[in-house]
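Work Package 4 report. The design task specified in the project plan requires that, given a folded chain encoded as structure tokens, an amino acid be chosen for each position. We show below one input record used in the internal validation round.
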């Protein structure tokens, strides 16, 4: 039985569920001849109550990272996690993350590690619904043509509430009260969270160096109840859609509210969930739909990445 030392950055909802799922899957790791030892969990306040497994080593000192075989980043943000992960990556050790903003905005620095198979990030897009794995493996045999996706649960919730007759401001306030939207909510409702995720996807099917600043972004802040009701009267539904396709020989990525027919896959398969429609010349049209947020949903993909690393599968490699 070999021991694998794991460090976790952040212990919010996702971090706690990652720790609990590692604990619950102890037998699966044991079947692979591995015992997971959590060397440390970086937090801002060790006295804050958390639902973690017994004996979880919470600390405000990141020194434990030096002894970790793999680091799981669940803290969010861009600059701070990058500063913590940089020495770990430079030493040749792998990182597991769900941080789409980090991946989108720090790609110049992260790309070589991804190409080396040291970066695992299935949970960064659609959380526990596997889309990056298929796009980085079997779908490469098919010529990519186009994708459309609904990738932000906050916007999905708000527009769904507006379909029930609520004004945008009321629906947004409810989303914030339920913890679905941050304060301020710009990252979600402005379309930037969706743009981060679309950038990550574009690197698997269009261009391995696809830059975040090439995504055209329009959020839902200008959406009115009248817009939503008019779409419903036409037999359509409004969604914040991420879209990638080739226009005049160049890949175009955009995020914008779109009015789609009620029978569109993003309106039925993704009625209350994240969803993606992937079109390839050889594979045809594929629909992925499922949970795109939530602690345990995200943790399932992150612990799945940990299992992949233990088995010896490389991380998610973008197009060269």
């Amino acid at each position: 039985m070999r021991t694998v030392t794991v460090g976790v950055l952040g212990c919010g909802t996702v971090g706690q569920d990652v720790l609990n799922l590692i604990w619950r899957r102890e037998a699966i790791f044991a079947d692979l001849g591995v015992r997971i030892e959590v060397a440390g969990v970086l937090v801002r306040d060790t006295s804050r109550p958390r639902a973690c497994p017994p004996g979880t080593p919470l600390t405000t000192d990141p020194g434990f990272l030096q002894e970790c075989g793999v680091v799981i980043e669940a803290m969010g943000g861009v600059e701070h996690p990058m500063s913590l992960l940089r020495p770990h990556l430079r030493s040749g050790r792998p990182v597991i993350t769900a941080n789409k903003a980090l991946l989108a905005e720090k790609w110049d620095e992260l790309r070589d590690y991804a190409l080396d198979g040291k970066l695992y990030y299935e949970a960064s897009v659609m959380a526990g619904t596997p889309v990056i794995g298929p796009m980085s493996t079997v779908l490469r045999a098919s010529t990519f043509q186009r994708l459309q996706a609904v990738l932000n649960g906050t916007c999905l919730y708000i527009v769904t509430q507006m379909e029930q007759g609520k004004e945008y401001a009321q629906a947004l306030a409810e989303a914030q009260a339920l913890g679905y939207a941050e304060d301020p909510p710009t990252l979600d409702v402005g379309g930037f969270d969706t743009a981060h995720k679309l950038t990550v996807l574009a690197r698997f099917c269009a261009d391995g160096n696809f830059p975040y600043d090439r995504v055209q972004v329009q959020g839902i802040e200008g959406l009115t109840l009248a817009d939503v009701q008019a779409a419903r009267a036409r037999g359509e539904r409004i969604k914040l859609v991420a879209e990638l396709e080739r226009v005049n020989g160049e890949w175009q990525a955009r995020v914008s509210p779109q009015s789609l027919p009620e029978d569109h896959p993003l309106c039925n398969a993704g009625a209350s969930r994240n969803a993606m429609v992937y079109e390839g010349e050889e594979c045809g049209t594929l629909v992925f739909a499922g949970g795109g947020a939530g602690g345990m949903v995200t943790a399932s993909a992150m612990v799945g990445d940990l299992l992949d690393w233990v088995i010896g599968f490389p991380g998610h490699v973008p197009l060269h």
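The chain is about 35% helix and 25% strand. Validation will be extended to a larger panel in the next phase.
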